[in-house]
TrEMBL record:
InterPro entries, sorted: Glutamic_endopeptidase (IPR053168), Neprosin (IPR004314), Neprosin_propep (IPR025521)
Protein name: Neprosin
Domain Neprosin PEP catalytic: 110-340
Length: 341
């Protein structure tokens, strides 16, 4: 099984096969990245970005983003595109087909219920918010080809039948490829860390990501937080793409989610174990913080917060009863054939 960080939308970003890359990195079978001129990357082909000027870094200094983790190993990057280029995933036909199928069955937390989808997490709808960040565990789990299991942090707003939604996290899948489900119009800036990649860092047991809105430009950035190394600003979604989160998002949240197979069998969530009193026994989210309306960073439980769990027979969620320095919860479960619709 492959695990990868993913950013989700029903549309895809992929390398143009007719464009000659300056350098190529083959990470593993069916996972190849091309170093493309930053000004010719496919995300800029979006019709709303014809006159967009690339923002090379967030206006908020990186040291203002907290980097509190318990991973003490050194991060080793496998890619490094030449100056002026960025890594773009080269997608095979099978890869593209799998991503489109996943996009069709994915359900946004802001939309109506979807048959076979189950969630366990927390959210706050007391916006406007300008960001969310969290550390969350990654796991190797066994799922069927037509199932999906993922962990995510997200921001979004909904009005009538419209939804603006951004998320980041990891996803398990049992096909040969891995999904690149980046939003249309995403602007890749980092020369080292692409928008989606397999998770194969030695001793990397936690992911640490921040989704935050730039105070000056209104663009929504995704930043990878790394212990003992500078934070990496991967890229951003330009403000021109959105009509509901231009001045902040109404909702932020984190948690796990699954999608059952066509036969109705629900896959494992997290590491497949129900949460117990031991924080290390099941999947975990920790250091969960949000940026409020004044761009002040606060614990998510500083605001009205809703716990999400729709299938307690198959999955669970357990928050710390003791007030720690950070807000933490464990989640997950084995799934099965009787998890409900």
């Amino acid at each position: 099984m492959n695990l990868l960080p993913f950013l989700f939308s029903p549309a895809l970003i992929r390398s143009d096969p007719n464009m000659v890359p300056l350098r190529t990195f083959k990470i593993r079978e069916n996972v190849t990245y091309d170093c493309i001129n930053i000004y010719k990357q496919p995300g800029l082909e979006h019709p709303l970005l014809q006159n967009h000027k690339i923002q090379m870094k967030p206006s908020v200094a990186r040291h203002e983003l907290k980097n509190q983790t318990d991973n003490t190993k050194t991060y080793k990057n496998k890619m490094g595109c030449p100056h002026g280029t960025v890594p773009i995933l080269r997608n095979s036909k099978e890869y593209i087909t799998n991503a489109q199928l996943f996009a069709e069955k994915y359900v946004y937390p802001l939309s109506g219920d979807s048959p076979g989808t189950h969630i366990a997490g927390v959210k706050s709808q007391n916006g406007p918010y300008h960001g969310v960040e969290a550390s969350f565990s990654i796991h190797n789990i066994n799922i069927e080809r037509d199932q999906a299991s993922y962990a995510q942090l997200y921001v979004g707003s909904g009005l009538n039948n419209q939804v603006n939604f951004i998320q980041a996290g990891w996803m398990g899948e049992n096909g040969k490829g891995c999904y690149n489900t980046a939003c249309p119009g995403f602007v890749q800036v980092s020369q080292e860390v692409p928008i989606a990649q397999p998770l194969d860092q030695p001793h990397e047991h936690l992911l640490h990501y921040s989704i935050h809105q730039d105070k000056q430009t209104g663009n929504w950035w995704i930043t990878k937080l790394i212990l003992n190394a500078p934070n990496i600003d991967v890229g951003y979604w330009p403000k021109e793409l959105f009509n509901l989160i231009g001045t902040g998002a109404n909702m932020v949240g984190v948690g796990g989610a699954v999608q059952a197979s066509h036969q109705g069998s629900s896959p494992p969530m997290g590491n497949g174990k129900f949460p117990t009193g031991d924080r290390k026994e099941s999947a975990m989210f920790t250091n969960i913080e949000v940026l409020n309306s004044n761009y002040e960073q606060r614990r998510i439980d500083s605001f009205p917060m809703e716990k999400l769990l729709d299938s307690p027979k198959c999955y669970g969620i357990r928050t710390d009863k003791v007030k720690l320095l950070d807000f933490t919860f464990n989640y997950g479960g084995p799934g099965g054939n009787s998890c409900g619709v």
